[in-house]
Specification:
By secondary structure, this protein is of the alpha+beta class. The chain is built from three helices and six strands, in the order H-H-E-E-H-E-E-E-E. A six-stranded mixed β-sheet has the order 2-1-6-5-4-3. Strand 1 and strand 2 form a beta hairpin.
């Protein structure tokens, strides 16, 4: 990763690529929201379940290709590969941060 990522976004991708869900969840605020594939996941329990289903089951790996800050969000573009139809795909991850935690993550 050559891009400079704000905390906790950098550690999120490091843990994600290790499939370390226990570390990933600690980077989210207790009331965080994740929006992925048209569904919202709210709070640690739902986000942890989402992480388990997507990260471990699909053996997801992410290679960051761009990072921009805009409108109070950090937008990360990554090539995501794994055990899913259409792999690899390029996705945008929009992070909203609060108190050095991920408050909202929107994936498109």
């Amino acid at each position: 990763m050559t891009q400079q990522l704000p905390h906790p976004v950098g550690p999120y991708y490091e843990a994600k690529n290790r499939q370390d869900i226990d570390t990933m969840i600690t980077l989210f605020a207790d009331d965080a929201v994740v929006v992925d594939e048209g569904s919202d996941r709210r709070g640690h329990d739902q986000i942890y379940e989402w992480m388990t289903n997507t990260t471990k089951r699909l053996a997801v790996q992410s290679e960051i290709i761009a990072v921009v800050s805009q409108a109070g969000r950090d937008i990360v573009t990554a090539v995501v590969s794994g055990d899913f139809t259409g792999s690899p795909v390029t996705l945008n991850y929009a992070f909203t941060l609060r108190d050095e935690k991920i408050a909202r993550l929107e994936i498109a």
